[in-house]
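Appendix B. One record, verbatim.
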Amino acid sequence: MLEIADYEDGPLVDGSGFLDLPLFWPCHLGSGLVGEEAQEAALGPDWDDAQDLCSRMFDAEEWPVFTVGLRSGHAVHVVYRNREGDRGVDYLLMHPSWQEAVTLAVDDGHFRGPGLCWPELASAADQAAPTGVTDPDARLLLLFPMLGDAGVPESAAARLASALAALTLAEDPARLARLLLRNQGQWESANWTRRDGEWICDGSHSFRDPSNAFALTPAQTAAVSSAFAAGPDR
């Protein structure tokens, strides 16, 4: 059984078996499917089947975990926290030398985010990893719900559409990509800047906005930027 600090009460299981199911992806991206147009673009006629799969993913008896390794030696654990009355998806950054993970984003009714800017997301997706999820498209879509970036480049839509075309049943991946980038998560898209080599944002719900009372510590902020190593500029 998988073990992650502070999740000892959960029956954590390897979620990789879900990755080959095309309907997993609209379920995972669900918080960004705002409105009927986005839901129709993602699900088409498969709404009922997707709902059944979502029920399996949020089963209290098993908490799926997906791991995205980074070349820095860190790993992002995407944890389906299926506690009764407290279900959600947690995005945790961990390193073998740490005793506790850093929470980057929380996708639930008491959401926290964004957790990544586009340069970090694109960098993480394309990194080679010896363990965990290795497919770049799957890595991109797994981490995409953490995104909240008001300055995504024009190339982002094509990159996202390519991943959606490869892994989902969407009839028009380009349209779905545009809708997802328009509605990034439950939070408002943030403005990201580099300060002393570290990415920070102005998101009022984000751990990476230093002005928030619940923000990461300076040491954690530096560690997160170093872990993703997205480069100096957009």
